[in-house]
Amino acid sequence: MKKVITYGTFDLLHYGHMRLLERAKALGDYLIVGVTSDTYDENRGKINVRQSVMERVQAVRNTGLADQIIVEEYEGQKIDDIRKYNVDIFAIGDDWRGKFDYLSDYCKVVYLERTKGISSTEIRSGQHLKLGIIGDNAYVNKVCRECSYVNGLETAAILTKNPEVLDQSVPENVLITSDLDALLEASDCIFVRSHPSLHYEHAKQALLKKKHVLCEAPAALKAEQIRELKKIAEENHCIFMEGLKTAYATAFNRLVLLAKSGLIGEVISVDARCTSIREVDEIEQWSSLTEWGPTGLLPVFRILGTDYQTVNIITKKSAKDDRFDLFTQIHFVYDHATADVKVGMGVKSEGDLVISGTEGYIYVPAPWWKTDYFEIRHEDIRDNKRYFFQLEGEGIRKELHAFAESIEDERAFSNIEGNVTEAAAGIMEEYYFKKNYTEI
Ligand code: CTP
Q1: What is the position in ligand 1's atom list of the atom closest to the CA of 6?
Q2: What's the pLDDT at 283?
Q3: Cα of 14 to ligand 1 centre, how many Å?
Q4: Do 3-121 and 250-390 agree at the fold level?
Q5: Ligand 1 mean position to 292 CA, how many Å?
Q6: 120 CB within 6 A, ligand 1
Q7: Considering only the top CATH level, what class is 3-121?
Q8: Which of 37, 41, 119 to mutate to test the pocket of ligand 1 (most atoms within 8 A of CB)?
Q9: Which residues, other chains included, contact 317 with Cβ-Cβ below 8 Å and sequence gap of 6+?
Q10: What is the atom index within ligand 1 of the atom nearest the CA of 9?
Q11: What is the pLDDT of residues 186-229, one digit of tens each?
């Protein structure tokens, strides 16, 4: 019996896939189809896949062409499969020509002509959303760059006071303006990355004009404002999401799940530090708390919740400009746990994250907010485990993708729960109104 194997994502199964499977099957007597797992696709940067692996496997099964279906979970698996299943022929579309020649040491490699004029990518990009970006620093370039990887989303306009910071990541046909109305007019959805004191106003104006909003954290400096923005979004049938790239890093989300699933016993303490030295020379600079606070608060609120008993904020202001905090510490006491967040742009420290539990701890080395790696450590070091998850585009790509998907499906797929957004704004409010607050 001649065995043939082929692999693919097979998202939104289409005529091109059918033809490929038919021809692959005709090469032998038995066809094995490898369908990529969700994690495998995510790790290789294919984040736009619409259907889950279960749905894609079912679609391949429904073709009636596969004699066996397997899931492709890791790089290098093809060699393992070919040997394990005694495969004679490896077949794949010729968009991969040359890429799998190395498999000819194990079996015959056949490239089949790809069917022209159809692909999952094309079917997926049914929507064409025009993104408007509000921002005055180089972060706007990153957003433009990452946007180009997201199906159905394209940068249409930028509102900025500093056009000189924009670089070649900004496509040529993008409208650069200093007029908010012009930006809103040219866009279907808005990424707000202005100065934190303006987030609320920018988000509100956009929502009132029925534009979907992804607003960089902190989305507002008062909890009440978050509630108001959510209400306006609801009334105008718009998506309102908070943006924070760390929330979209796979490794971060996995460590939260592991901490919550009891792998280190009961969580007793969460300690997060985020620092980066910056000059206090610009009045418009983000403060240490607004720049880093939402990131530092994220693991605390995601793991311990937002129902803390007490909070204490200790801050050290700049002698040059008292609107700027060089360093701020936020200390929480919960019923059965404690948390400490230290942020600074005028103080340098180790930027690690430690989640301590009764049976072990999770250690994320600096810079933990860009994490693709963490360790679970136990008393007996033989029980330690390391975890690695590839991170493409610092999380911004996945954040934009979640935003576009939310708009299409008319419900928010945010990685930041509503109560976390509100609680973070509440901390900003305590700081600015000097509640539970000490200056050193
Ligand atoms: N294929 C094909 N003709 C097409 C599309 C895909 O022959 N028009 C083949 C690919 O070459 C591959 C298999 O079908 O061997 C699975 O491809 P997959 O990557 O899942 O499909 P695409 O439509 O190319 O998906 P995407 O647009 O996400 O890359």
Answers
A1: 15
A2: 45
A3: 9
A4: no
A5: 42
A6: yes
A7: alpha beta
A8: 119
A9: 324, 325, 326, 439
A10: 20
A11: 999 999 999 999 999 999 999 999 999 999 999 999 999 999 99
CB atoms < 10 A from the CB of 17, how many? Answer: 26
Residue showing tokens 């009045």: 283
Angle (CA) 58 60 65, round 5°: 130
Nearest alpha carbon to residue 325 among 176, 187, 431 = 431
Ligand 1 atom showing the smallest separation from residue 95 Cα: 11
Tokens of 418: 């509503």
Mention the CATH class of domain 125-244.
alpha beta
Ligand 1 binding pocket mutation candidate from 4, 7, 9, 42 (most atoms within 8 A of CB): 9
> In this predicted model, what pLDDT tens digit does every residue of 43-59 receive, in sequence order?
777 888 989 999 999 99
CATH superfamily of 250-390: Dihydrodipicolinate Reductase; domain 2 (3.30.360.10)
92 ligand 1 Cβ < 6 A: yes
pLDDT tens string 11-22? 999 999 999 999
